[in-house]
Write a structure and sequence with these properties.
By secondary structure, the chain is mainly α. The chain folds into two domains: about 220 residues, Hypothetical protein, domain 2 (Endonuclease III, domain 1, Orthogonal Bundle), CATH 1.10.340.30; about 40 residues. About 70% of the residues lie in helices and about 0% in strands. It is built from 16 helices and no strands. The longest helix is centred in the last third of the chain and has 65 residues. The chain is globular, with a radius of gyration of 49 Å. The N and C termini lie far apart (about 160 Å). The C terminus is likely disordered.
């Protein structure tokens, strides 16, 4: 979209939002730190819910130091009506911890005396401060021209084709602050924030879709889509094309079993044949050896007997 068309679309958006919502002004009596802490609670939430949560924190805890040392779970229980209580509690706790470690106090009034550029830089360096929180403090406490954009408002701008995906990822919409003058910045920011809070609360509400179509009649294809049960199952279950793989593994099993049985049978036959051959050959060799030994022994014995008989005969003849 060309910049000139975007500028006209921003002014058209401002006019249509006036018919649906009422502008909400920030409390001018709050210190800079309280503006920043309220921005931590207001992000992606309606103004009424954020005010209730912020007041409940002030009643349940003694001071900012007690909130700083409290756990995120305890803070989230107090702010249970917010869209994301743990995220808001984490932002709140991180901001208080950073401010206390920097000055050992809970005071940011010195930012009013600084120029707008250095003040915004110091705000952005504080842990837990998002782009929405920094822009909200610049607009409500420091008198600068900045329009706060959280996740809900950025998604609204994307649906209305007023912001690209890259701009939504960066959290900055080019040309917005130029198209909306400074004297109308607070009003436009509060109206746009309420539309973003409605989207965060229920993105499929019929009332919300009517408002979006009143702003841009061609925005229907960009509406958030419901995930059906079939699509959810398809994303969770594996694809069916991978199922025939185990069948291919099962088919060669009977072939392998046949081969194994045939090998075993051949081994048994060969071993049995060897055993029979040993039984037949070994006893015959032993019998032959035994017969030879017996014959030699008998011959030796007969020769000895013959020798004895000859000597005996000689002895008998001597007395003559």
């Amino acid at each position: 979209m060309a910049p000139s068309n975007r500028a006209t679309q921003f002014t058209h958006l401002h006019k249509v939002l006036k018919g649906f919502y009422k502008p909400v002004a920030a409390d001018a009596q709050r210190p800079v730190l309280e503006h920043l802490l309220f921005a931590c609670v207001l992000e992606n939430a309606h103004y009424g819910v954020a005010e209730e949560a912020f007041a409940a924190i002030g009643e349940m805890f003694f001071d900012w130091n007690e909130i700083r040392v409290s756990s995120i779970r305890e803070l989230a229980e107090v702010m249970a009506r917010l869209p994301d209580p743990p995220a808001a509690a984490a932002r709140l706790k991180a901001v208080l911890q950073h401010v206390f470690e920097a000055s050992y106090s809970f005071d940011l009034e010195h930012l009013r005396k600084q120029n707008l550029g250095p003040a915004t830089q110091t705000l952005q360096k504080i842990k837990g401060v998002t782009g929405f929180g920094a822009a909200y403090v610049v607009q409500s406490a420091l008198g600068g021209h900045a329009i706060p954009l959280d996740a809900g408002t950025l998604e609204v701008m994307r649906i209305l084709d007023l912001a690209s995906d890259a701009e939504v990822a960066q959290g900055n919409v080019t040309g917005l602050e130029r198209a909306i003058p400074k004297n109308k910045g607070v009003e436009f920011g509060s109206l746009l924030h309420q539309l973003g809070a409605d989207l965060t609360d229920n993105p499929f509400a019929a009332d919300l879709r009517e408002k979006l179509l009143a702003i841009d009649p061609k925005a229907k294809p960009r509406f958030p889509k419901r995930t059906t049960r079939k699509k959810a199952k398809e994303t969770q279950e594996p694809p069916k094309a991978a199922e025939p793989a185990p069948a291919a593994k099962e088919s060669p099993k009977p072939k392998s079993t046949k081969k194994k049985t045939s090998k075993k049978a051949t081994k048994k036959i060969s071993t049995s044949g060897k055993k029979v051959a040993k039984k037949k050959i070994v006893p015959t060799k032993k019998k032959v050896k035994s017969t030879k030994k017996k014959t030699t022994k008998k011959k030796a014995s007969t020769g000895a007997k013959r020798k004895k008989s000859a000597t005996s005969r000689i002895t008998k003849k001597k007395p003559r």
